[in-house]
Design brief:
With 446 residues, the protein is an alpha/beta fold. Helix content is 52%, strand content 7%. The radius of gyration is 32 Å and the shape is elongated.
Length: 446
């Protein structure tokens, strides 16, 4: 082994492949062309160039930490790296003091990189404000969560939010090929090979996460080398990738941005009457470890909010699924859940439960506590009856068809329409019934 190979091996000891293969310049960066491509916000950077404070927002493995380091190297600025998981206000103050000293003594700029910045408390984030505003540090915050929720408004207003996208399959494939052939930092010393079919399987297992792709590739390459023994070439097979991947890790944080995204599209799939998509997104949540009761509660709400009286049975189905899962648990509980979600997706839709309540709420807020008409108050006592309570009330069951034309709203609201039934599903029957009742009421007033 030559001295170059020995030196490379020495540098690699203890470092995972993902760390060794980090790009050394913006030119080596794969992906994020919308940020570093020609004419983009992070293109044409160089020593001394101005850079605004940034919030790097993107999924795991999209290159946030790598990009922050490359920006520091490209600008020849000192990069101080903190993790919001274990750093406190004291660490921030120490970093700012160091940056101020470098600025005053050498006229040098400092990039303060804070990973997982959404985990900083409001107090910790507020401590950054004056220093970011004064330019003592250029803040580079990284987050997997929507910064509108995780970063305080005052700090967010002083930063540019740039979104990093999940790496595309062809981009991950290029990174894998580079790692396999790189003799200085990669896996070339193992003499492993990777064909197109296995690369596609590796990329699928990574699900857009470069760090995960490198992790799976490194283990798969080791398995291939051991299986090949003294044979010069060691092909990485589909079995090696499957063993290394040990099942795909689904991106789904129960309290984070991906959680709300999946829940949102799950509900929209049911509302859009797409049972295939609805079952897929429900399965995504369950396979990622979501509490089935959370999913079922959303289904019960949906049955009233988006179906309502268009199919009154929908609420029964949703509640029955909830009860069934409480009874049998998982994994069998996925069956009544699947039955229910396909029913809800294909049921006729109406949002009149939502619109009717909203209309009634608006009247209550605008008009206040209007008095109950005296004829509808209980005449239980002599005092009540003396006040006219209950007088003139017509009991519907005393009349033909169990109906008598009356106005039950407060006198000031008579004539207001709150519930407007649609012509969808069973609600069309209710619309016809309402039209019949209103015709009788109109006839009685003539």
């Amino acid at each position: 082994m030559d001295l170059f190979a020995q030196s490379a091996k020495k540098r690699q000891v203890g470092q995972p492949l993902a760390e060794r293969m980090r790009p050394r310049s913006l030119g080596e960066l794969v992906g994020q062309a919308h940020l570093v491509g020609p004419g983009r916000i992070l293109s044409n950077l160089g020593p001394g160039r101005a850079l605004p404070s940034l919030i790097l927002y993107g999924p795991p493995g999209s290159g946030k930490t790598t990009l922050a380091r490359l920006l520091g190297e490209t600008l020849r600025a000192d990069l101080i790296q903190l993790s919001a998981v274990d750093a406190g206000v004291k660490d921030v103050r120490d970093a700012v003091a160091k940056a101020a000293a470098r600025r005053d003594q050498f006229g040098a700029r400092t990039l303060l990189f804070i990973d997982e910045i959404h985990r900083f408390s409001k107090t910790q984030q507020d401590a950054l404000l004056p220093h970011v505003e004064a330019g003592t540090v250029t803040l580079i915050g990284a987050t997997t969560e929507n910064p509108s929720f995780g970063v305080v408004a005052a700090l967010l207003s002083r930063c540019r939010v740039v979104r990093l996208e999940r790496l595309a399959d062809d981009e991950l494939g290029r990174l894998a090929a580079r790692a396999v052939t790189d003799r200085e930092r990669g896996l070339a010393s193992l003499d492993v090979t990777l064909d197109d079919e296995v690369t596609a399987q590796l990329v699928a297992a990574a699900a857009g996460d470069a760090r995960r792709m490198y992790s799976v590739l490194e283990v798969a390459a080791d398995l291939a080398r051991r299986a090949a023994g003294d044979t010069p070439a060691a092909p990485i097979t589909a079995e090696h990738v499957a063993e290394a991947a040990q099942g795909r890790t689904l991106l789904y944080d129960k309290a984070g941005d991906e959680h709300y995204g999946v829940v949102s599209v799950f509900i929209k799939s049911m509302r859009g009457s797409d049972p295939d998509a609805a079952v897929y997104w429900m399965t995504r949540m369950l396979e990622a470890g979501e509490d089935p009761r959370f999913v079922l509660r959303r289904m019960v709400i949906f049955a009233s909010e988006d179906i309502g009286n268009a199919d009154p049975q929908a609420l029964v189905v949703a509640v029955s699924a909830l009860q069934a899962v409480e009874l049998v648990g998982l994994p069998e509980g996925v069956l009544p859940m699947t039955q229910a979600v396909t029913y809800l997706a294909l049921a006729p839709k109406s949002n009149t439960a939502l619109t009717a309540y909203a209309a009634a709420r608006k009247l209550v807020r605008e008009k206040g506590a209007l008095p109950v008409p005296a004829r509808y108050r209980p005449g239980s006592t002599a005092l009540d009856r003396a006040a006219g309570h209950g007088q003139g009330y017509k009991y519907p069951h005393d009349f033909e068809g169990n109906y008598v034309p009356e106005d039950y709203l407060p006198d000031e609201l008579i004539g207001e329409r709150i519930y407007e039934p649609t012509r969808s599903g069973h609600e069309a029957t209710l619309a016809d019934r309402r039209a019949e009742i209103e015709a009788q009421k109109a006839s009685a007033k003539r």
